[in-house]
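Bug #77: duplicate submission created two jobs. Keeping one. Sequence:
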Amino acid sequence: MHRSRFSNLVIDCLDAHFETSVAFWAEAFGAPKPPKIRAGQRYVTLKTCPGGPEVLLQKVERDPGVHLDFETDSVVKESARLEAAGGHRKYRVKTWQVMEDPSGTPFCVISKQHPKELERMLPWPDSTTQDT
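Kept job's structure:
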């Protein structure tokens, strides 16, 4: 059995607009202005309501937009569960799986980020996949 939960709203921002995008989204969400962005920094997490999904800004080279992250204690099992529901695997990156829904909207299945929040979720039943 494994657990999963919606954990992040990810806003993909073009490199050239990353700092201004971070400032904009902090204002839009009423979040405190994050510390100055360091050279090479790809991610900024906005401090929004505790316990809810995090708003994560990600620096990208192309295809700005918004996607969802689902965290899990088994990327393999959760990816298989969502594939059985009609999703499609696009490609794997390091420890996470990029997928898309039936209409082509991308989302990610990521490894455990918030163990206490994840532990509160009801487990999904086992399928025939083996966890690796």
